[in-house]
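Annex B. Sample input.
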Amino acid sequence: MEQEVEDTMAYVAQHEFHDFPDRQQETRIHTTVAQGLVQQLADLGVEQAYGVSGGAIALVFDALVESRSIELHHFRHEAGAAFSAAEAHFASQKPTVVFATTGPGILNVLTGMTAAKWDGAKVILISGSTSAPQRGRWATQESSSYTLPQDALYTKGPIFDFAVRMEHASELPEVMRRLALGLSRPGGFVAHVSIPMSVLSGRVDFQRRGPRAMVAPPTVAREEIEYCANLLSQSPFAIWVGFGATRAARLVRKLVERSGAKVFCSPRGKGIVSEDHPQFLGVTGLGGHESVTEHMVQRKPDWVLVLGTRLGEATSFWDNDLLPAKGFIHVDLDPEVPGVSYPDARTIGIQAEIGLFLEALLAYFPERSSNVLPGPKPQHEEPFPEAVAGRGPVRPQMLMKAIQRQVIQGSDALVLAECGNSFAWCNHYLRFQTPGRYRVSTLFGSMGHCAAGVVGAALARGGKALAVVGDGSMLMNSEISSAAKYRAQAIWVVLNDGGYAMCQNGHDALGLSSEELDFPCVDFAQLARSMGAEGVIVENEDDLDAALRQAMAASGPFVVDVRIDPREPSPLLKRFESLIKQGTSKNVAGWET
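Annex B, continued. Sample output.
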């Protein structure tokens, strides 16, 4: 037990839950609000800023240009900038900044900021605001209570964890204190600070120091740990792991091996436990594996320990076949999460930081348990089709096989999968052995997220990041031009089938018309070259490996335009079944059957 306590203290020290020490000697600063804001953002650990400039934000833009601590990336669209800022956070584990001007600038950025919020990123939006004397007088791109909704933009709510419109320079120290506090907490933090030009140009006198924040993560009482340990040690259980457990991956693996429990993951949890591990069952949700459902039906465990996933539709489809015999033990930082997705199932909610919970729980699992679920390891790996020389158009399964070989096994590149058929193919076929190499945005699921976000991921990690995207998403928001300007090592692998394939598949499955869901085929390789990137077209399966090797060897952005066979059905049947269930209320947890 003493060793486990020491391990817990080591875990806290390693992950620095109060990670804003002084970075310099305290210095009295007299400067403009814009310059002081940028200096303080750097003190908070911000190293990258993304956005589109405009008149109302010009002073912040200028301060960012002059900053020696923050790299400025000027993008082509505010949404693309926000998507890149979110992915830059996940790639670097550091807070990032988005900047936008008034009016359309603020509204354009909201989709990306909402995605950042839903995904749990740490991103601060700095926006311009119309100065008080000009409000209500039809100022160009006016942002005020006369023109924009105040509750959504300038108050804490569904989009922002903290939001404020500064009206005086003297507010800056308090605003920075609140930002430091929010960033110090475990989990995500999305903030909005809107500042009028008249305030940005004002002078401020403040004591510059590395903002200090001391926030301890929620811990669990010994009695709760003992109760959970007794339940889990008395009968077989399974572990359902998601993205929120990424930082505790080592402890998750230790519990899996000591307890003998079977484990499966959400799409965002791929790699937390190696997908080659003998106790790994597969992936649930979008593009997931039937082996998980089969195991839960045929060898149903008494309990399922849920770590780091909300069990939303993209993870569970609210499928009653995934219910354990007795109930869930659900660990989450947010006490409102446990029990929401399966309201009729017994759920023991534990509010705690997952790593601290596991460190304490492991004291009750000193060696391998005898309560191992029976049966051989399920064959969750679906075999790839046989290669056919010269075959074209390309089957997506064969593209996944080439990505697995050339990118996942052949490099340390980060892989992102865009919403739609792209992440269905990736979730189903790609295999990861370590955490932090795969990113999907299954919650908000905005088209264009990864098509733009891959640029921020590549810039933040200073290395390769590859996004698998649909042609529809690529046309919506790709930021190739931004990648070319900054020589980001971003790679786009485009599933080019001349239409919105996921929508077409869904309409067909639901018996609806799929007219108007196609569009003229685009030459994305030529489009890339026109913007200063490189590109290649792949029309048959024999050329996949060579094209990916060429992309991985490139020193700048690269587009691999893969002409996909649209006749191959994607592994999205569960999603379509879920939509049908939502219409018929069949087998959906919490609904009448």
